[in-house]
Amino acid sequence: MAWVVSRRAVMSGGALGAAVAGLGIGRGATAQANHKIIVLEETAVPESRLFTETFINSGYAAQVIRIDRSLNGLLHELEAIGGILLGLTSDPAAMIAEQILVGSGARPLLQWTHQYRRMRWEHRTEGTSALLSRASTGWPTVLAHHIQDALGGNRQDAKLQCESGSCRLDGKSPGMLVSWAFEVGEKLS
Amino acid sequence: MPQGVDAATFRKALDELAAIVGKEWVFVDDLPLSAYRDAYSPLADGDLLPSAAVAPANIEQIQQALKVFNAYKLPIWTFGNGRNFAYGGPAPRQSGYVMFDLKRLNRILEVNEKYGYALVEPGVSYFQLHRHLRQIGSKLWIDPAAPGWGGVMGNALEHGAGYTPYGDHFVMQCGMEVVLADGEIVRTGQGAIESSKHWQSTKHAAGPHFDGMFTQSNFGVVTKMGIWLMPEPPGYKPFMITYQREEDLAAIFDAVLPLKINQVIPNAAVAVDLLWEVSAKTTRRHYFDGKGPIPPSIRAKIASDHDLGMWNFYAALYGPPPIIENNWKLVEEAMMSIPGAKLHLSRDNDPAWDYRVQLMRGEPNMTEFSIMNWIGGGGHINFSPISAPDGAEALSQYNLIKQRCHDFGFDYIGEFLVGWRDMHHILMIMYDRADEAMRKGAYDLFAKLVDEAAEAGFGEYRTHLAFMDQIARTYKHNDGALWELHHRLKDVLDPNGILSPGKQGIWPRSMRAPA
Asked: How far apart are CA B50 and CA B42, in angstroms?
């Protein structure tokens, strides 16, 4: 798989991503076909649980790593994995995962943000606005399906910002989440 | 590109470096170099980026690489482990520097159970040392900084602190091996005696004490460091006392001072403000969706909902149970005498309590990062003035800094830690990195605080890359004689100015502004 990462792309990553802007799942190849899909669930975060559940129910997740809100599991669990690791997690969990994974040679595939403001979730993604804007509390399910499609190579690259329908913020939700994916280690075909 | 170096020359230097460390350990692509950026910087993305990174595997490779850096006058930025977030992360002081990444030097060279120390290399993390001690059945504790992925050596060299009785990491450092800019290897203290077995047991030796010179500085590359480790005590009693009013801060520190100076409370006692404490459990948006600081009525609700005080004081007692219980009487009498004080000896389902109890018994963890959920967007920078633990002074400092935070539209989120005779005040300025106005506000607030604190007689003990020069200028006694001394040493020890130029405001002659 050929990946072209330019300094310009790295720098346009915005607030959260170091090296993901301009990169994408499936660019030039179907990433999912050759990789084991590992989903990282931050169990204390309700949206993360829903996202993971969707991956499990649709048969995409070969493995699920669950971490509690201490975040300690991130360091231990990410030491010896290979495949595509993805998740919908809090911002700190995403940052720690990024630091560990990039430091060990993983390639970032996507990093999108989801922020709750004024009774709605605001999403900064690529190619998902119609679907996400029709969702409300179920948006992590929609997002999971979209990422599954992207892993299969069905992807749109346009950067989009949209809002889901009005909903309350779950008392356990941090209200600022990141969906992310990395290609880690050797291919498991 | 490093400043003043053309592409062909740089490529030639990198080829020579690759011949020393191996091609796979010279990084020039954007992706691996992105690991050296400050993910939480108050500066714009791309302001501080390295041109390349070189990761030697041993001392010989360090010496050979230094020859190349000297030959081409390439500025390098040394990095061991950990991330140093809130103080600039692993990023270099200026764009174009070459990262000198020592992560491959990650051996724990010795653990001495009898005398209670370890000798480590720069790449050893707290988690690694903790795991190693447990694996070998050691009864020694480590003293981790709040994020356990930090480097044992790097944190001590940055004057970092932890939460056990061994919490002042530079005080607990004993013996260094340093490679100077010209490649010469120096061992400090008893390490200079060829057959000494006491390099890590005693700091004292004939002649000047040099170890401090290699901390927060750019005079050498530290490659080995001894660190004292606390023997596991037979008893441990952590506690938290909540205080209802902001102005209780003065009474708290007046009560704490004699307990600290007399070592009744042996660890780094810490008074944590309401918002720092609650941010591991909930987020601001659950309580307040408006701009500016959270109103007092909502602060009161937060405190009530989470059974917290405006200040939440953590400390622990250690030792044989009868001694703990005896000392506890003194602590209880002093600390519970403040009206409204409430004692907590355990807390159910409280991640903040859990991670602090772990830290005070030397167990590394990552939980403190969850406080970044408070605002969302992850940005934070720590303003860290240091002073004596006097109640009136603490309150005055708190009022000044809180007011400035509010002036700039930020909440005060902070804590006060007390060592033996020092008080670290850590203000965490949190901001959403995607919000440019908020990020700039954080930068401007910090810059104002540096000067105002200096006017009031307070200096910072550590700082972010972006403010090193400004803070250096606040040390201006006798026309800045202290920094002039740093510069004189720098020019002698590193005449080509290759080692971390600008670290802590110490610049080589070629990069200094004319006087």
From this structure: 17
Among candidates A5, A69, A176 on the partner chain, residue whose Cβ is nearest the Cβ of B29? A5
A34 pLDDT more than 90: no
Q: How many CB pairs under 8 A join A and B?
A: 111
Residue with tokens 């072209």: A4
B285: nearest CB among A14, A74, A175: A175
Which secondary structure element, helix H or strand E, spans residue B482, and what is its range? helix B477-493
What are B380's strand-pairing partners? Answer: B430
Please state, in angstroms and rounded to a whole number, the distance separating the CA atoms of residues A173 and A171.
6
Cβ contact A18–B378 (<8 Å) = no
pLDDT level of residue A12 (50, 70, 90 thresholds): very low
Higher pLDDT, A161 or A82: A82
Q: Quick check: helix, strand or coil at residue B138?
A: coil
B399 or A32, which is more confident:
B399
Query: Cα distance from B275 to chain A (closest Cα, Å)?
Result: 15
Answer for the pair B389, B252: CB distance below 8 angstroms, yes or no: no
Please give the pLDDT value at position A154: 65
* Confidence band of A155 (pLDDT split at 50, 70, 90): low
Q: Which string of DSSP letters, residue by residue, matches A156-169?
A: ---EEEEEPPP-PP
- The sign of the CA dihedral B259, B238, B276, B309 is negative
pLDDT digits (tens, 9 = 90+) for B247-272: 999 999 999 999 999 999 999 999 99
Helix axes B391-407, B436-455, angle to 10 degrees: 150
Chain A positions touching B43 (Cβ under 8 A) are none
Mean pLDDT of A51-57: 96
pLDDT (tens digit per residue) in B99-113? 999 999 999 999 999
**Sign, Cα dihedral of B54, B60, B66, B71:** negative
Distance from CA of A21 to the nearest CA of B (A): 11
CB neighbours of B164 closer than 8 A, spacing ≥ 6? B141, B143, B230, B267, B268, B318, B359, B360, B361, B362
Interface contact B30-A5, CB threshold 8 A: yes
Distance between alpha carbon B504 and the CA centroid of its chain, in Å?
Answer: 14
Say how far residue B271 (Cα) sits from the centre of its chain.
18
Question: Binning pLDDT at 50, 70 and 90, where does residue A3 land?
Answer: very low
Sequence-ordered alpha helix ranges (H) in B177-320: 248-261, 274-278, 296-305
Asked whether the beta carbons of residue B34 and residue A19 sit closer than 8 angstroms, the reply is: yes
Residue contact B372–A92, C-beta within 8 A: yes
Predicted ipTM of the assembly = 0.89
Using a CB–CB cutoff of 8 Å, tell me whether B363 touches chain A.
no
Q: Are A67 and A73 in contact (CB under 8 A)?
A: yes
| A-contacting residues in B 149-188 (Cβ below 8 Å) | 149
Candidates B103, B366, B432, B436, partner chain A, best to mutate (most A CBs within 10 A): B366
Residues of A with CB under 8 A from a CB of B: 5-7, 9-11, 13-16, 18-19, 69-72, 74-75, 90-92, 95-96, 98-99, 102-103, 105, 107-108, 113, 115-118, 169, 171, 174-176
Question: Inter-chain contact B32–A102, Cβ cutoff 8 Å?
Answer: yes
- Chain B residues with CB-CB distance to A117 below 8 A: 285, 289
Contacts of A56 (CB under 8 A, 6+ apart): A39, A64
Strands of the sheet with B173-179, listed across from one edge: B108-112, B117-120, B221-228, B173-179, B185-187
Let me know if B28 is exposed, middle or buried by CB neighbors in 10 A (0-12, 13-18, 19+).
middle
Residues of A in contact with B351 (CB under 8 A): 69-70
Q: What's the CA gap between B174 and B156, in Å, rounded?
A: 11
